[in-house]
Amino acid sequence: MSDKVAIVTGAGQGIGEAIAKRLAKDGFKVGLVGRHVEKVDAVAESINAEFGADTAFAVKGDVSKRDEVFTAVEKISDKFGDLNVIVNNAGVAPTTPIMEVTEDDMEWTWKINVDGVIWGTQAAVTAFKKFNHGGKIINATSQAGVQGNPSLTVYGSTKFAIRGITQTTAKELAASNITVNAYAPGIVKTPMMMDIAHEVGQNAGKDDEWGMAQFAKGIALGKLSEPEDVASVASFLAGPDSNYITGQTIIVDGGMVFN
């Protein structure tokens, strides 16, 4: 995969950081996009220190804003002279009981989680066509987008939507030699997951450990996943072994949901 170029949104921590580092290990040049530039800069510096200067390039960008996504993709593809893969990873995960959901909750979450996938897809396809080849689009859905979970109506609704967008765009873009797939993490040890566990615990009058335990129940493998577990699946979807796969969601949850 030498000289391939990938972009990862939400690459400043957690799953996005792990994916960026794994793709660099796979031989990709990686562009990192995040709202907090200091976070993606730090990840880029770490990647460049391990895999060589100019392996990673960080750009500030809010995925809820179409113009910022297009600008980020253009900057990265111009920097590296190509684009082959985009990982639409950026997202937020509010935990709100159904009767407490507000208009602001819905708008904020959908603009980042769903609009971000749409804008990332549009920007990537524009770049693929500019460079006269196909490419791979990889979206972040969730176990909560495969099976409903209490207090995750807002978050889950976006992740169910992303599965649908993945299937729809896979059919629409196939003629351009572009595949579209998704990964669906379960309970991953990330800062965002710890925030979710905290909110769930607070809503129930319990502590963070109790909140995490609610999500950890029923994992067949008996343990929470690491970000690197998800990054391995993203690596597969970004590489040539997945060339004949499109429109699919790969669940990476240790055995919580079975399809």
TrEMBL record:
SUPFAM superfamilies: NAD(P)-binding Rossmann-fold domains (SSF51735). PROSITE patterns: ADH_SHORT (PS00061). It is an enzyme of class 1 (oxidoreductase). Gene3D superfamilies: NAD(P)-binding Rossmann-like Domain (3.40.50.720). This is diacetyl reductase [(S)-acetoin forming]. It catalyses: (S)-acetoin + NAD(+) = diacetyl + NADH + H(+). Its EC number is 1.1.1.304. Pfam families: adh_short (PF00106). Keywords: NAD, Oxidoreductase. Belongs to the short-chain dehydrogenases/reductases (SDR) family.
